[in-house]
């Protein structure tokens, strides 16, 4: 009888809500955990707000995605039973951290595992943008390709260039590591503080944001979204860049002032831009940026390899279970 009572208490203590259909391996980890009761919004599309508020009610654990806004309203709906939030993302700007900390809720996230995939995508986007690949493909399809012309479809190469990286964290370093063999001459970086141990591998120089804008042939944004970085790539920033510079953002859309970026691209203030992130997401199909030939926009697919998304889902599940059991999480965000 005691064992049955303990098992009932355990199952009560491990009711979790999963906000989306995630890779099967992550769900299997939860399903195979003894006494874990899973309720899931089983769809490729985001959970509607009303269903999120109802689903999280009385739960001990929440496994969410970066597209789920976990604010005070959600936390109130969950009630005091909520002990752990596990987000299947490296970013956490969708979580109301102050409010979460106030309530003593633990938070798990998934850094490291998506570094390589995001860095690969950043390099792919940079190359596609600077060598005008989407534009060139379009010319093949619409009959614009007539004969070989010396200056037709010319872009910009990485050889002997200066690359500026905003945010030399895990992903920023992984991008630099991949770009170095292309013959990049100089790496510059900026951030909240110098990181000499990380920068040494690329002989990267720590500079103010203004100097990075002025001297870089390619600017790659890989920083986290914080109050300090919000909107920092703005009119002043773009006006300092070279007219031949290419701007790449694979971090968060809100780091960029999109109106200012549009003006810089239209006026020829900068050569081109490649974005994997926008504000909002998805970007409306009539958005002005989508009318520009020199702007390549992807639908936030930085971590989209089968292996990476599977690993992310398993780590998110492992974080959630460890938190519910009062154990050390594989990756906890220390608030």
From TrEMBL:
<protein>
    <recommendedName>
        <fullName>Glyoxylate reductase/hydroxypyruvate reductase</fullName>
    </recommendedName>
</protein>
<dbReference type="InterPro" id="IPR029753">
    <property type="entry name" value="D-isomer_DH_CS"/>
</dbReference>
<dbReference type="GO" id="GO:0051287">
    <property type="term" value="F:NAD binding"/>
</dbReference>
<feature type="domain" description="D-isomer specific 2-hydroxyacid dehydrogenase NAD-binding">
    <location>
        <begin position="123"/>
        <end position="302"/>
    </location>
</feature>
<keyword id="KW-0560">Oxidoreductase</keyword>
<dbReference type="InterPro" id="IPR036291">
    <property type="entry name" value="NAD(P)-bd_dom_sf"/>
</dbReference>
<dbReference type="InterPro" id="IPR050223">
    <property type="entry name" value="D-isomer_2-hydroxyacid_DH"/>
</dbReference>
<dbReference type="InterPro" id="IPR006140">
    <property type="entry name" value="D-isomer_DH_NAD-bd"/>
</dbReference>
<dbReference type="Pfam" id="PF02826">
    <property type="entry name" value="2-Hacid_dh_C"/>
</dbReference>
<comment type="similarity">
    <text>Belongs to the D-isomer specific 2-hydroxyacid dehydrogenase family.</text>
</comment>
<feature type="domain" description="D-isomer specific 2-hydroxyacid dehydrogenase catalytic">
    <location>
        <begin position="16"/>
        <end position="332"/>
    </location>
</feature>
<dbReference type="GO" id="GO:0030267">
    <property type="term" value="F:glyoxylate reductase (NADPH) activity"/>
</dbReference>
<dbReference type="GO" id="GO:0005829">
    <property type="term" value="C:cytosol"/>
</dbReference>
<dbReference type="Pfam" id="PF00389">
    <property type="entry name" value="2-Hacid_dh"/>
</dbReference>
<dbReference type="InterPro" id="IPR006139">
    <property type="entry name" value="D-isomer_2_OHA_DH_cat_dom"/>
</dbReference>
<dbReference type="GO" id="GO:0008465">
    <property type="term" value="F:hydroxypyruvate reductase (NADH) activity"/>
</dbReference>
């Amino acid at each position: 009888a005691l064992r049955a009572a303990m098992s009932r208490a355990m199952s009560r203590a491990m009711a979790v809500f999963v906000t989306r259909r995630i890779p099967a391996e992550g769900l299997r980890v939860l399903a195979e955990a003894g006494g874990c009761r899973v309720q899931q919004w089983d769809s490729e599309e985001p959970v509607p707000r009303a269903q999120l508020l109802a689903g999280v009610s009385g739960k001990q654990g929440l496994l969410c995605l970066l597209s789920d806004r976990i604010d005070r309203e959600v936390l109130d709906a969950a009630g005091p039973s909520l002990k752990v939030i596990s987000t299947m993302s490296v970013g956490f700007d969708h979580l109301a951290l102050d409010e979460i900390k106030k309530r003593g809720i633990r938070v798990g996230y998934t850094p490291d595992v998506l570094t390589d995939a995001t860095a690969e995508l950043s390099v792919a986007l940079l190359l596609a943008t600077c060598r005008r690949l989407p534009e060139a493909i379009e010319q093949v399809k619409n009959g614009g390709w007539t004969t070989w012309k010396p200056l037709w479809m010319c872009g910009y190469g990485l050889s002997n260039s200066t690359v500026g990286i905003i945010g030399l964290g895990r992903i920023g370093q992984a991008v630099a590591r991949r770009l170095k063999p292309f013959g990049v001459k100089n790496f510059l970086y900026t951030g909240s503080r110098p990181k000499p141990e990380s920068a040494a591998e690329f002989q990267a120089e720590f500079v103010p944001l203004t100097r990075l804008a002025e001297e870089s042939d390619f600017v790659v944004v890989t920083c986290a979204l914080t109050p300090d970085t919000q909107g920092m790539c703005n009119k002043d920033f773009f006006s300092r860049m070279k007219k031949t510079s290419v701007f790449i953002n694979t971090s968060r859309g809100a780091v960029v002032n999109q109106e200012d970026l549009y003006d810089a691209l239209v006026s020829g203030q900068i050569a081109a831009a490649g974005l994997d992130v926008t504000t909002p997401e998805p970007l409306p199909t009539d958005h002005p940026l989508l009318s520009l030939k020199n702007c390549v926009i992807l639908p936030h697919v930085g971590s989209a390899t089968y292996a990476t998304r599977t690993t992310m889902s398993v780590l998110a599940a492992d974080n959630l279970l460890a938190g519910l059991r009062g154990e050390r999480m594989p990756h906890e965000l220390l608030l």
